[in-house]
Amino acid sequence: MGSSQSMSEEVRELVSKTGFSSDQIEQLHRRFKQLSGNQLTIRTRRTQLTWMATRQSSWAFNHSSLQTDMFTSKENFNNIPDLELNPIRSKIIRAFFDNRNLRKAPNGLADEINFEDFLTIMSYFRPIETNMDEEQLEHCRKEKLRFLFHMYDSDSDGRITLEEYRNVVEELLSGNPHIEKESARSIADGAMMEAASVCVGQMQPDQVYEGITFDDFLKIWQGIDIETKMHVRFLNMETIALCH
């Protein structure tokens, strides 16, 4: 991350932006380097394929550099043991490149992410701090729920269908070893019906249902302690709750 002096300044800035301690940032930087193959960015597979086509068309193809560059692909996330059995693994990986989560654009996916982008996403998984006041707690919870909402609003239209919401619940429950598959499906069906009552119940008679908005999503999850249902053990850090 640069020379010793500039590195310490950069770390201080990242501490301020993300809320991570300097030790956590150093630890995450080591994991980022592993994922990126010591490159400055982690790239999507689409970027890799474009790069390959350019290299081949110019007859400047070099096998060793290709292997190194392919290692920087986001597919490396699939090799993380902590994510291997996570029921929403593919959505978590995609979320790292979602411009909404990176706070760069209202839609679309980034072609690559740098270390600061990586920390921005990891900050959504940061545990709730015990010294937070009520306003800070509410903001933190809202941001984590927004991150979850974005996972299922894949077309960035600001809405998810009831069926997609049902899948949210079932996928999360499927990672719990104490809940059988049929039970998870039954609970998910009930959650979908409850969500429907929240959304449809507040509609005007002439209003057409178009899906669950983020405000609806907040109402549905209000008062529910989902911290015990949504844990992600990730990147060799402590078990981090996605929501509180």
TrEMBL record:
InterPro entries, sorted: CHP3 (IPR052490), EF-hand-dom_pair (IPR011992), EF_Hand_1_Ca_BS (IPR018247), EF_hand_dom (IPR002048)
Domain of life: Eukaryota
Keywords noted in UniProt: Calcium, Cell membrane, Cell projection, Cytoplasm, Differentiation, Lipoprotein, Membrane, Metal-binding, Myristate, Nucleus, Protein kinase inhibitor
Listed GO MF terms: calcium ion binding; protein kinase inhibitor activity
SUPFAM superfamilies, alphabetized: EF-hand
Domain EF-hand: 140-175
Membrane topology field: Lipid-anchor
Name of the protein in its database record: Calcineurin B homologous protein 3
Gene3D superfamilies: EF-hand
A single BP term in Gene Ontology: cell differentiation
Similarity comment: family membership: Belongs to the calcineurin regulatory subunit family. CHP subfamily.
Organism: Sarcophilus harrisii (Tasmanian devil)
